[in-house]
Amino acid sequence: MAASSNTPSAIAQAKRLVVKVGSSLVTNEGKGIDAQAVAHWARQIAALHAQGKQIVLVSSGAIAEGMARLGWPRRPNAMHELQAAAAVGQMGLIQAYEVAFAQHGIRTAQILLTHEDLADRRRYLNARSTLYTLLALGVVPIVNENDTVVTDEIRLGDNDTLGALVTNLIEAEALIILTDQSGLYSADPRKDPTAQFISIGTAGDPALEAMAGGSGSSIGTGGMLTKVLAAKRAANSGGHTVIASGRETDVLLRLSDGEQIGTELRALLPVRSARQRWLANHLRLRGRITLDSGAVQAVTRDHKSLLAIGVSAVEGDFERGDVVACVDQHGVECGRGLINYSSADTRRIMRQPSARIADILGSMSDAELMHRDNMVFVRGALPGKSLLTGKTTSEPQ
Ligand SMILES: Nc1ncnc2c1ncn2[C@@H]1O[C@H](COP(=O)(O)OP(=O)(O)O)[C@@H](O)[C@H]1O
Ligand SMILES: N[C@@H](CCC(=O)OP(=O)(O)O)C(=O)O
Fold first, then answer.
1. Where does substrate bind (predicted)?
2. I need a surface site. Which of 79, 105, 166, 189 has the fewest CB within 10 A?
């Protein structure tokens, strides 16, 4: 697919779309599933289906609905309680979508994903092939994070990120994020009544990230920042993003007709290959290695493979084949890739020429520490939590 388009209706032209609906919208601010809203989206998606478009729905709301069903007035903090609420609420969510889509003769499928499913190459390819098969069968997949099995450390947490990952996974041309605001404002309109509406922007523009704040409600997670970052991620596969109000009448049909509603964040970044996206989409890294300035230049400017001689420090505990961050002398991530040696072996061969690897380790599996085909480079900082430090790290784009 083309890297970008300046056509006024990139969303209208999209044949494969991901629609993401947020918790507060689906559950009417936590009061319980808004069956009427669900029916409206199902009707619109059915109409788009009839036009030959393929749609994956990423729906939040399991925890909020579970809390409503269990009579819990406040969102619990304990992970096991959140997981229990999600397990209860997911039933209601899926039931509501099944009933609503059945009115239009459309079958639905439940897909629960974790970060691990998308980080492991084999599982990633399996998920992709299942989604493609469902779409080919005319089924609407309803995706959510598999909240009941993920721990705090590895959960995505917000479904904006999940929506973008699914957009990358199936190479959708558009990601439509429906929320409780009309789109992105220059500041959180709940806090700043003078905030200006942003109708169009470029995905990945750091100025937009500065405007976007966290969630203003107790129901949603992530707020506008995760939506703006999701647009940047969706752009990696050429996906344009719209952030719009899910309460806007016929919002999906009108967007698909080319009407400008909400905030459109266009994909103008060069499109990455599926393999590069898979590498870039690793949100949790097993370790990091520090490159000297010559190595930074060799890998980022000259696109060479990384050799052990250019590495000056190793952090973390990783195995051959893990995804590891490459940082410069200042600790700034300049890329990441699949490493050919474990952390223990990397520590022993760092600063050494490849010709010495066999002497040091007893054998040499690869001359390169990271092969250029297995690396991606940073185009701008995006947060992703490091398994190593628990802190946010930049993410290769
Ligand atoms: N710059 C901004 N523009 C619009 N909304 C913003 C902005 N910054 C923060 N927000 C907040 O983001 C909220 C939407 O995110 P969130 O609560 O996570 O919803 P969802 O459940 O739909 O993902 C809005 O209700 C608003 O309070
Ligand atoms: N997987 C969670 C969604 C997390 C969440 O709150 O997402 P969102 O409302 O999109 O910010 C759930 O279904 O409750």
1. 60, 147, 159
2. 105
**How many separate domains does the chain show?**
2
pTM: 0.85
Position 8 scores a pLDDT of 52
What ipTM was reported for this prediction?
Answer: 0.98
Kindly report, residue by residue over 97-150, the tens digit of the pLDDT.
999 999 999 999 999 999 889 888 889 999 999 999 999 999 999 999 999 888
Whether the Cβ atoms of residue 263 and residue 183 lie closer than 8 Å to each other: yes
Residue identifier of the C-alpha nearest atom 18 of ligand 1: 223
For residue 205, the enclosing domain spans 10-276
Position 154 confidence tier, pLDDT thresholds 50, 70, 90: low
Given 276, 306, 322, the domain boundary residue is 276
Tokens 């709301």 — which residue? Answer: 61
Nearest ligand, CA 207: 1
Protein residue with its CA nearest to atom 11 in ligand 2: 221
3 lies in some domain: no
The reply to whether ligand 2 has any atom less than 6 angstroms from the CB of 161 is no
- Of 156, 162, 181, 229, which is best to mutate to test ligand 1, by the most ligand atoms within 8 angstroms of its C-beta? 181
State pLDDT tens for residues 198-240: 999 999 998 999 999 887 777 767 789 999 999 999 999 999 9
CATH number of the domain where residue 361 is located:
2.30.130.10
